[in-house]
Amino acid sequence: MTELSRIRNFAIIAHIDHGKSTLADRLIQLCGGLSEREMREQVLDSMDIERERGITIKAQAVRLHYAAHDGHTYVLNLIDTPGHVDFSYEVSRSLAACEGSLLVVDSTQGVEAQTLANAYLAIENDHEIIPVLNKTDLPAAEPERIVEQIEDVIGLDAAHTMLISAKTGDGVPELLEAMVERLPPPDGDIEQPLKALLVDSWYDPYLGVMILVRIVDGVLSRGMKVRMMAAGTVHQVEQVGVFSPKPTRVEQLGPGEVGYITAGIKTVADTNVGDTVTADRRRAQTPLPGFKPTLPVVFCGLFPTDAGDFDDLRQSLAKLRLNDSSFHYEPETSAALGTGFRCGFLGLLHLEVIQERLEREFDLDLIATAPSVVYRVHMTDGTTHELHNPADMPDPVKIAGIDEPWIRATILAPGEYVGSVLQLCTERRGVQKELTYAGNRAMAIYRLPLNEVVFDFHDRLKSISRGYASFDYEMDGFTAGNLVRVGILINSEPVDAFSFICDRGQAEFRGRAICDRLKDLIPRQLFKIPIQAAIGGTVIARETISAMRKDVTAKCYGGDISRKRKLLDKQKAGKKKMRQFGKVEIPQSAFIAALKMGDD
Question: Distance of alpha carbon 465 from its chain centroid, rounded?
């Protein structure tokens, strides 16, 4: 067991692509965590999707041994965190397990929205923050300007900022020394009853559920019985270990240490992230303050292309849920798409990652319906319901009002793009709260309705600012809105998979756009097909797919016009009858194309 004064627990926080995982690689290399042969780029990004997209999705913990200049060997517990807004719950968990943070800022791009959000999260957790300027070896680096920016925008004292290049390793040895000197050691009492914070849990096919814990007080050793305070379950510890970055078994973990335990637990549902682990015999009196539970904000239906794959989809979702506790799902049926699941996600990137993992890791072919957010529906009888699926909206006569979720968005962009950014926010029903400048960068804070952001807000923001604007948000409660459900009817039959909820002012525009798209996607039949968008019984947009025409008069050579007329009338009557009884088969490809994420 390591004495407390020789332990440093820290997280690396930054905006996407500012070099967190590369810096983690250099630290592992310098501390000899892996041999040269085992070393590879982004060691801690273990999922294929993380490596391909160059993003971190799951926070990872590593224990390193560092021989400092003062002759002592220190234990550094490093937690690499994601930079994307959808995974900020992973960041908040990691920060609760640490006493200090390295705030990494790209010296060519400066402070971005997520840098700001993560810095504030670290300040809330009373962290000692070391600002680190990365990529100083690039010709476009402007360290002096960025140091000023850190002081102006975040309000941190940046006098002792470390200048490094994580790629080449310049400045990293000096950073290690600064961490030992400037980051505080953890507090903890070895005599107290065991108290450990459950930071993360995931499923291992051989060992069952593995739990990442940060010991606060007491000792956790192999063979002891532990109790989860919130879940109330008791388990016997089978293995205790640390990641260095390979899993390495140890006999026990003491105060301030971070490591993993396995206890033959079958389901991750028994291990709530943020729970307190204590000894079953000598229990702690009060649990540790956990984290806010993650609430899904974006909902979408996932259906198998082939109805026979439904059972495979159910098993695959159950396995994914084991590794990602922030993801929720429940079965649902749709007249158009058959049986599938209504899934809840933390944002669009989370949705895309889960969908991609299902298609890759479990070889499934899926259709995703248009993403929607959760609404609160107040009924005339005084009850309130949560609405996840637009198709389940009750009769408008019984609805007293609908509340929609709003977010508080922080957008950072260079001065020349401010006009376009403000225009985009106004188009999306945004309400401006603040607009400040630091140097040539503007920071706009807006309140925006979540359903306006869910579709393509991020893509539009990137395209109008040529990729320079960055965006971060947090939930900001529910507000009453003038919302309507727009249903799509094809040949007078409602198709629930296409229905959506939106602001009344935009209903006609959105309805017209989807009718126009479906007109090109549904194949022509022998009769006319009307495609309509309707609010209740009122049609607000319509397109018609014209009928395929068979030339019934081809065999008439000359003769009286009445002969041709008679044949044409007969054809017309037949088409009318066909339209009454004809069923329009909507091909699967039409659903996929019409429900594509990017809303034109």
Answer: 23
